[in-house]
Design brief:
There is one protein chain. This protein is an alpha/beta fold. The chain folds into three domains: 102 residues, no CATH class; 96 residues, no CATH class; 154 residues, 3-Layer(aba) Sandwich (Rossmann fold), CATH 3.40.50.720. It is built from ten helices and 19 strands. The chain has a six-stranded antiparallel sheet with strand order 3-2-1-5-4-17, sandwiched between helices. A six-stranded parallel sheet has the order 13-12-11-14-15-16, with helices on both faces. Helix 5 packs across helix 10 and helix 6 packs parallel to helix 7. The longest helix has 17 residues. The chain is elongated, with a radius of gyration of 24 Å. The protein starts with a helix and ends with a strand.
Length: 405
């Protein structure tokens, strides 16, 4: 949707932008999902898969007309689950604002950063006792970036707190709603800031140029990873054999991973799939991988006998039990997979389950929420009380009346 938004912004048009900023229970979309309402009434994107888009469409047009941002909650009331709300039982907070060159002068620079794969975060005030604060934003880069941050919240204290936390989210690669006191107090309430993180795609490093690696590269790309296939054998590590990989590297796996880590190209979102099941490749590689301070997942292919032999070799190499426990081996979930494609699904399923805290069982056999959330950082919004009903389409702030509900 960014190309559409940028095109209208460059033409000097006003656009309605609705962004999911918080969710509870079985909400269909995660924070950061957006919907645009263009200058000719065009609707682009979705925040709920169709549940509340009609109501949001009208609200966005109102916001564009009067320029007053609105934080709106959509949920289900006890008496009418089919009103304008979420029949799945979820709850969404959606921030609706008018975007133009006047209200968002930094958008062009943000778009350029995204195009250049420069990590950038946009922190927007979505709730505050003083309605004039709503919509104020900061564009935040990492500490190593020469620009630091641009924009203003109108308070040095608030800016310092938000910039610090936004950089933490930028490092972890996910968007979040943060809560502060009205002037950025760490332990206070009253101000909520949604931080949208635009970071390069997380990496999937696949070692071993075999048919299972080709299937893994394909599903990794489908899941949004930037996939690298690495093998020391040039006859196997070829672009024609791995068309779905973003890059194919001929190098010794352990040497390549060590160099990537040294260059800062491995982070807490990176997943490592070791498919070589050959000790001369995978033991030196896993020595490096299991000692990395930040990596999301390390899985290794092989039979249970291969796994036990591998653990013995790694212990002989000096790895501790705390380091070895990070290894997922045999790789993947127990799906009964046999083909390379089925095995790739099994591996992807394990990565997704570990990312979100799933257990890999059939949803039909378990109770509780379908969707899970990651563990958060300071300031994460707590879930609303389960006492009482959530009434559909109730604004948290009705800025037109100047009241907080």
């Amino acid at each position: 949707m960014l190309p559409d938004l940028l095109r209208w912004w460059e033409a000097g048009e006003d656009v309605g932008l609705a962004t999911v900023v918080a969710t509870w229970r079985s909400a269909p979309r995660q924070p950061g999902a957006t919907m645009l309402v263009g200058p000719e009434g065009e609707a682009v994107g979705s925040v709920s898969g169709g549940c509340v888009e009609g109501a949001l469409y009208e609200l966005a047009q109102e916001v564009v007309a009067d320029g007053v941002p609105v934080l709106q909650r959509y949920g289900v009331s006890d008496d009418d689950a089919y009103a304008v709300g979420l029949t799945c039982g979820g709850i969404l907070d959606v921030f609706v604002e008018a975007v133009s060159r006047r209200t968002y002068p930094e958008l062009g620079a943000v778009a350029a950063d995204i195009e250049s794969r420069v990590p950038v975060a946009v922190a927007t005030v979505i709730e505050h006792p003083d309605p004039t604060w709503l919509g104020r934003r900061l564009v935040v880069h990492g500490e190593e970036h020469e620009q630091g941050y641009v924009g203003s919240l109108g308070s040095d204290r608030a800016e310092a707190a938000v910039v610090d936390d936004a950089r933490g989210l930028l490092a972890s690669g996910h968007s979040e709603t943060l809560t502060y006191g009205p002037d950025g107090q760490r332990r206070g309430e009253g101000m909520r800031v949604f931080v949208t993180v635009f970071a390069p795609a997380p990496r999937m490093l696949v070692f071993g140029a075999i048919d299972f690696a080709a299937a893994c590269a394909k599903i990794g790309s489908f899941l949004g990873y930037r996939v690298t296939v690495c093998d020391a054998r040039p006859v196997f590590a070829t672009r024609s054999r791995f068309p779905d990989a973003d890059e194919v590297v001929v190098d010794w796996p352990h040497r390549y991973l060590a160099a990537q880590a040294q260059a800062g190209a491995v982070d807490a979102r990176t997943v490592v799939c070791v498919l070589t099941h050959d000790p001369k490749f995978d033991v030196p590689l896993l020595e490096v991988a299991l000692r990395l301070p930040k990596v999301a997942y390390i899985g290794a292919m092989g039979s249970r006998r291969t796994h036990e032999d591998r653990l013995d070799r790694l212990r002989e190499a000096g790895l501790t039990e705390d380091e070895l426990v990070r290894l997922s081996s045999p790789i993947g979930l127990d799906l009964g997979a046999r083909t390379p494609e089925e095995t790739a699904v099994s591996i992807a399923a394990e990565i997704v389950a570990l990312r979100w805290g799933g257990h890999g069982r059939r949803l039909a056999d378990v109770d509780g929420p379908i969707h899970r959330k990651r563990g958060g950082v300071h300031g994460r919004v707590s879930a609303p009380s389960e006492a009482g009903s959530w009434h559909t389409s109730k604004p948290l702030h009705d800025n037109r009346a100047g009241t907080t509900i």
